[in-house]
Amino acid sequence: MFEVRNSVPASAVDDIARQNRLTRISSQRLELAGSTVYRYRVTDGRPVPVVVQALEQDVRIGATQPNFVYRLAESPAPNSLSGTQYAVLQMRLPEAHRVSTGLGISVAVIDSGIDSTNPELAGSIADAFDAIEGAARPHKHGTAVAGIIGSHARLMGVAPRAKLLAIRAFASEGGRIGADGTTDHIVRGIEWAHQRGARVVNMSFTGPRDPLLSRELHAGKEKGIVFVAAAGNEGPNAAAADDSVIAVTASDATDNLYPAANRGPHVCLAAPGVDVMVAGPSGTYEFGSGTSMAAAHVSGAIALMLQSRPDLSPTAVRTILLNRARRLSTETGGDGNCGIGVVDALALVTEPSEKQGPEGAGSTPLARGGEHSTVGISRTVSPSTSRPDQTKD
Question: Quick check: is 275 catalytic?
């Protein structure tokens, strides 16, 4: 993938491709990033890093990078039926829904194919976009993530009245478990979500350091979009460490953190994500575990908050999430700069001065000095490589 400098005419793009023996696939105007990205295929067997290095030497090129591969951040469910919808009690959803249900808030789910016919999601999917060519099949990961946010039949979703924007950016190939997506699929999904007025974007996937995606995320945040990312399971996830996203790890019914989840200074928030009862394709139900599930719970909680306070900025949303989370006393972030807390939906929709449940059960602030203060958390990202992320499902 490459972009040309502003002073370079469009006619030069084909010349660049001929000189570098590239076959054109597509071009995409990214309104958020303010650029046009050209995508090409290397057909003669040269390694992608070699081609990228050659393009970097061309003065007409503004930026170039591989079309990185991302994986959905899911884990196999253990053989356990314990804790059915424990998130309902942990997050105090019934009480929160008396105040807010996410009504009118658009939440984009960048994931695999979602089964819109599942009764849990009936009427919840406002629009859909397919960034991948080929037949779309309902996929358990996308259906589960969307259901955590918007279920309203036998399950209780976090934001049952939110408007879901279903974005298919991941597909399974060759019978493999899990699904892959690329930089191109994801950034086109973000562009579409922005055009449809998404306030929250759920990113339950893992991937490498990606300059183009990072620019898109930063531009989207500046436009008021809140990005929520899964911390990832059993492998590095630079996408979740980006300064423009809220990284989420998973906790279980007893407030223990998911052992397989990534840790780091950017991970300060947890949500239910172990043995979570979720909706599946064809009206089925199953248990799922992973930071993907946790991120979806946070995306739904943000929709609850934005219904009553739609003017909140992404920075303010993050600060409130941290300040009103229920502190896990023995857990800290990777460098000790933040305590890890579990998201509390009722606390997010209730003013701090109001009583919050039995015996005033509220949240313990993770950041001192009030919700209008800046939470001082350092964020670091590992050096980039051009290899696709190898995180397992």
Answer: no
